[in-house]
Amino acid sequence: MVSVNQLTLDFGTFLLFEDVSFLINPRDRIGLVGKNGAGKTTLLKVITGAQEPTSGEVTMPRDFSVGYLPQVMKHDDRFSVFEETEQAFSEIKKLEKQIEELTQAIHHREDYHSEEYLSLIDKLTEANERFNMFGGHDYRSRIEVTLKGLGFKPSDFERPTSEFSGGWRMRIELAKILLRKPDLFLLDEPTNHLDIESITWLEDFLKNYSGAVVLISHDKAFLDNVTTRTIEISLGRIYDYKASYSQFVTLRHERREQQLAAYRNQQKKIEDTEQFIERFRYKATKAVQVQSRIKQLEKMDRIEVDEFDNSKLNIKFPPAPHSGKLTVSGKHVSKSYGDLLVLDDIDFDIERGEKVAFVGKNGEGKTTLARIIMQELQHEGTVKLGHQVKIGYFAQNQAERLDENLTVFETVDKVATGDIRTKVRDLLGAFLFSGEEVDKKVSVLSGGERTRLAMVMLLLEPVNFLVLDEPTNHLDMRSKDILKQALNDFEGSVLVVSHDREFLDGLVDRIFEFTNKKTKVHLGGIYEFLRKKKMDTLQELERVPLKANKTDSEVSGASSGQSGKVAFAERKELNKRIKKAENEVSKSEEDIARLEKELEGLSAVMENPEKASDPAVFEMYQKIQKNLDAAMEEWEVAHLELEELQQKRNVLDESA
C-alpha cells in the first residue's frame, strides 16, 4: 500500500495542487486524468521520489518496488535490443555469472572432503536456489514473449538499439519495466508510440497483472479496458471515483448536478432565513425566533460545489477552398530505405470530402506514405494531387520540431502572413494560450501544450486536404473530442494516421490497413474493421500453396515429412479454435434465449397501462432490448467465424 498524504506543490506563485491525499492499494487499476498541465506527470514524479513536494509525504512499505515509464527518457545505445532488455534481470545475470564461476572452481578441485570444497558446494546450492526463485531458467523466453507482444520481430532482437526510433526505444524501456514485475506500475502515456495490436497486448497484460497500476493516458478505450478507479486532478484538487473513465465522467456530472441542486436549495433557505432576521430583528416579540435563526445560520454546514475547469479549445478549421473531385491518387508506389523495402507497388486514391485512416503495425509504412503524399520523400511510381488541392500537414514529431528558443507568440507570428497576423493572439487564446502564457518559451511547454501550439499552425491559412500523423498524442480527452468534432465539421478531405480507436470512431469511413508492404482497404468505421480483423487473422491458418514449377514427386517427397507435421499442427490449432467458436455460439444462443424471455415478461408487464407509464420499467425494457441486439450481433460474428473455421478444416481434410 502506498500512502499519498497531504501533498502540496507550488512553483513560486503558481500552485499546482494542494493538500492532496489518497491511497494506492494492492491490485488497484487507477487512471490519473485531468487537463494538460494539471499536474499528472508531476504527481507521478513525486511518488517515485524524483520530485520533492512543497509539503506532505509519500510513504510505502520497505522493499516495495516501483516501475516508472516517463513520457521522455534518456536512452543508452550500447547494446542490442535483447541485451538492453536483459538489464531488467540484472540480479539473475549476476547469479548466472556466480554459478558459472563456482562451477568452474569446483570442477578444478579434488579435495572433496575439505571445508573449502564443502563451502563452495553450499554457495553453489544457495546461488542455484536463488536463481530458480527468480525464474532464471525461463527469463530469456519471457523476454522474447514480451518483446514480441510489444511489436518486435525476432530479427530485431540482435539489432543495436541505436537503429530504432524514439518510439521503439520507449517500447524497450516498457519491456524492461514489465519484466521486472514491480509492486507498482507508474505509466505516463504508454500508448503514445504503440500500434493498435501492441496496445491490445498491453491491455491484457495490465488487466491480469498481480501488482498495482497507476497510468496517465488520453486513450479513452485503453483507460476503460484497464482501469477500475479514476483520480482526476482539477484546479489543484483531486476527485477519486471507484469507476472506469467513462463511468467516472457520468458520475462526476451527476455529482455536480446533485451538488448544484443542494446548493441552490441551501442558498434559498439561507436567503429566506436572512430576510426573516432582517425583518424582525428589532421586534421584541420575535427576539427568540430571530436568535434561533441566527444560531441556525452559524451552525449550518455550507455546501460547496466542486470547482470545474471549463476552459477548452476552440477549434474551427477555415472553410475548405473548392477543389477537384479527386484529392490525391497514387499508382504503383514503392519505397525502400536502402535494402529495406517498406512499400511495394501500392495503388490508392482519396476523393474530395472523404475522411480516411491509415492503420497498422509500426514500421509498416503509414508515415512513409503520408510523407510521400506531402512530396517529402523520393519514391517509385506516381502520386498526383487533384485540381487546386492545398494540404495542411501535422507531422508525428511536429511538436518536437518547434524552435525551443522562441516564445509561443513568436512561433506563430514568424509563420503567419497577411490578415491572420492581426489575429494571432485571438487564435492562441482559442488554443488556451492567453495573457502571459503567450510569452512562455517553447522549451518550458508540456507535451500537450506543444501539440496545441503545433495545431495552431494548421489554422493559419485555408486548406482542403488535412494530413494528420498521430495528432492526438499528448492531447487530453476534452481537447481530442473537440478536435474530432472540428474534423467532422471540416468539409475538405482528411487523412489520419492514428492508433487511437476512440478518436477514429465516428470520424473515418474508410480504412487503409498497412501490412506486408501492401495496403488493404476496409469500408466502414474502426470498430467494424477491428471485428473483421479478428476473422481475417484466421487466413493465416490456410496452407501456403505449393509452387507450380515442382513435379508431383518433388511435392510428395517434400511434403511427406515436414508438411505432414505442419498439417497436423494446423488441424490441431483449427480444432482448438473450432471448439472455442462452438462455445461462443452456444453461449450467445443461451444469452439470446434468456434476454428474449426477460423481454417477453416485461412486455406482459407493460400491457398494464399503469406499468407502461413507469419510467423505470421502460428504461429496463430499453436496456434489455439493447443487450439483446448486442447478443444477436455477437452470435452472428461467432457463427460466421465457426463456419469459416469448419470450411478450412474441410479443405485440410480433403487435401490430406
Described by strand count, sense and barrel closure, the largest sheet is: 6 strands, mixed
| Tally of DSSP helical segments | 21
CATH T-level topology of the domain at 326-537: Rossmann fold
* Class from helix and strand fractions: alpha/beta
Highest-level CATH class of the domain at 326-537: Alpha Beta
Rg, rounded, reads: 31 Å
Mean pLDDT: 80
Fraction of residues in β-strands: 15-25%
Low-confidence stretches: 537-566
Label the CATH architecture of the domain at 326-537: 3-Layer(aba) Sandwich
User: Which strand order does the major sheet show?
Assistant: 5-6-7-3-8-9
Name the helicity range.
Answer: 40-55%
Shape: globular
For CATH, the homologous superfamily of the domain at 326-537 is named as P-loop containing nucleotide triphosphate hydrolases
Query: What is the number of strand segments?
Result: 18
For the terminal residues, how far apart are their CA atoms? 58 Å
